Amino acid sequence: MSTSSLESLIYSLVPQARLDQVLKKELITHCKDVLSSHIGQTRQKDIGHLSDLVKRQLAQTRPDGISSLQFTNLLSRLLEQPVLSRKYDSLLFLHSLASSTRNPSPAPSFLPSLAPPPPLTARTPINSSPADGLPPTRLPRGKSKAEILRDFRNRSGRPHLSEELLLRDTLYLLQGISGKYIRFSPANDEGRDMSLVFTEDAGHFIPRPTKELIYRLSEVGHLYTRVDRFVRDRETLTGVGMIEQSLCHHLQSQLTDYYRLIAVFESQLTLSSKSLDDTASRAEPDIRAEESGLTLKRLDVWVNEWRLRMRMMSVCVEAARDTHGGALVNLIHSYTENGDPFVRKFTDQLLEEVSKPFFGTLQKWLFSGDLYDPYSEFFVSVDPGLAHLQYVHPSTPSAGFGTLSGDGGFAGLSGDQDEILERESGLRLWEAKHQFRKEMLPTFVGEGFGRKIFSTGKSLNFIRYSCHDTDWVATREKLNNTDGTLQYSDIAGLERSIDTAYRIASQRLFDVFFEKFRLLDHFRALKNYLLLGHGDFADQLMETLGPSLSRPANTLYRHNLTATLETAIRSSNAQKDPPDVLRRLDARMLEYTHGEIGWDVFTLEYKVDAPLDTVLDPDSMVKYLKLFNHLWKMKRIESTLTRGWMRTGSGTKAFVHIPELEPEWHRIRLYMAEMIHFIRQMEAYCQLEVIECSWKALMDFVHDKEGDLDALIDTHRSYLDRMVKKILLIGSRAGREENLLNQVRDAFSTIIQFHESTDNLYNFCLTESARRDSERDARRGVFTGAEQRNGQTPESLLRSLRQCMEHGAAFSEQTQAIVHSLQSHADLDCRFLGIRLSFSDFYRSKKEHPQQR
């Protein structure tokens, strides 16, 4: 549509435009804006609805109804015209033009006005004719109550300070700068807390409500000062952590947006000042300028969101002074549990930025086992003294397994002891090299997942730098395919990545231990050799070492013991074990004192190296040696009783010539049967109920392969502790844990003494029987030519008999005390052992009816 057409249309609708050129230009511009807009394109073209809107407007402006009838007639004629194609658009344009305001448009505002829209100007009277051509007259505008009060105070001589001046100072306060009439004053020596001071003179007055409003606005400036000071201080400091640097970067970006807001306020204040100056120059005030200008109340509304932001940033700043790293992330995350949606959204955005360094460190640790944490911000720390140490893994020799070394031991692991002591224990490196710091763990990760992350990184570090796994590249490829980049906004993906990485790393670590280092073979070797699981090997070793161990300890030599050990291995099925197992087995003597014999100091030793000593640590090997010494003593007692029983049974015919000793030998055989029952029940309990059941639990874990290396270490420790507690009959009373074990060892000593006394009596009977046979042959005139021996004295016979009976009775009393202690033991298996030792209440009946001597 051309400009001339628009002018004719405006003249017909608004006759006042013929005399007011400013109004005419404004209406032409408004019409062009309407024509160039997209009015009607986003709504359905319902001309009936539009006609109802026009009629409703006409009814409000002209209640006589004549205009509505005229509009209906004109609309019907318009619809019958075939020439016009955009009838709806034309009618909509006319309706929009009639509904628009006729006041001049104010200057564009950067901020939305919170005041209601200005009232419409007074319309031309209904009965006025367009031909009058006179501009409408404005009604006089009365003063508001605020203006009346202001005039009264001006007349009283104490006027209010201009709001424009207060606004200027308030904008300074928002930037942390003191103004002319309002300034900040430090509340303490540190200068971190500020107070607000108002400067008043005799000629101006600031009312209390205005002061309270300025107090509210100054809070934003005070918080801004804290945040800005924190960011500037961290820029000059050295050693600031990466998480804190990320926090400063996000705070600086927020302050940049805040600077933009202050610039908008400055421009708005300038525009408001110009509008007030123009209004003052005109006779009548500009209502629109007054209602859309910048005021203290509007400023308070517009900065309300930034007040909340500054509060959150100030809290983070104060927390960052005392915490760092994961603890800082944890503190910020605690504000996400807030009912205010704004606080939650702001905290989520802040955490998304601040946690990026944390997730970068997490990704390296979780997927490669490398810890890059120069400022100690991660929840995993490394011991500086162990950071550069690695596990020493000796290369596997290609030959020479089972051969004797220079000192008589098996070759391969009998190197210099000083070199062994210089190497760090595998378990110490595993447990102490990396530490879990719970205080640095963010709560959105959780302690359970944190432990998995810690274990996964340790496992990967162990695989790479300790086991020297050649398939590490394949493991890394599996880990890289688990998921994408870790970030705070994807906690579900983080948990999936943690679970997958934990499973892959733990599975690979189990494979390395049980396939590459054959850990299961070493478990079996410890069970077969140190726990005497190989029965034929134990019997061969007992038979070949028995005569040597009966000699004093200072007459034994290690090379003789190792040679005897090798003979026992080659004489039993132990020779079929892997060579790597046999080369680790060795025999040695413990430190001995004067008077001890070989039985007291002999022990077997199984040598382990890195990384096997991570599971088979030195403390575990000490427990294995304790079990071996106890089981070896039981094996010695069993062998001794077996030989004694065979001698007693086979020598019955030799005793037929000494009938007066037959009752004593019968009692001796009863005592010996009691001892055999005791030792066999003890062995069955140790081997079947303790060792085999514990071994079954260990094998179940090995076959399932659930958990990580820590789980394997804990399972092996539980397996070993269970055997130590049950085999050594450890009690639960503090200070009296080994009382029952000492009673059993006293019973073992009594059996040895009983065996020695029985041997002396047996030798006496053999000598006496030979003497009586010789006398009988001499009476018959048969001379055997045997040299006559003087028989032993009756005193020696009585002494031997008395010793046998005393030791037998002492053993019965000791066994009775052991059974009584087992019945009150805290462990159920130990109580069952007491039942098996006295299955027919034998010892209880002896206690109730003591034997008459």
Descriptive report:
This is Gamma-tubulin complex DGRIP91/SPC98 component. The protein is mainly α. The protein has 32 helices and 6 strands. The protein has helices at residues 3-13, 21-36, 47-61, 66-80, 87-99, 145-156, 163-174, 208-236, 242-281, 287-292, 296-302, 304-320, 326-333, 341-354, 356-368, 417-422, 426-432, 447-465, 472-480, 491-516, 519-530, 535-549, 558-570, 579-582, 598-601, 618-650, 662-704, 709-727, 739-779, 794-823, 828-837, 842-848; strands spanning 182-186, 194-198, 380-382, 434-436, 585-589, 602-606. The strands form 3 sheets. It has a two-stranded antiparallel ribbon. Helix 3 runs parallel beside helix 5. The N and C termini lie far apart (141 Å). Residues 101-139 and 392-423 have low confidence and may be disordered.
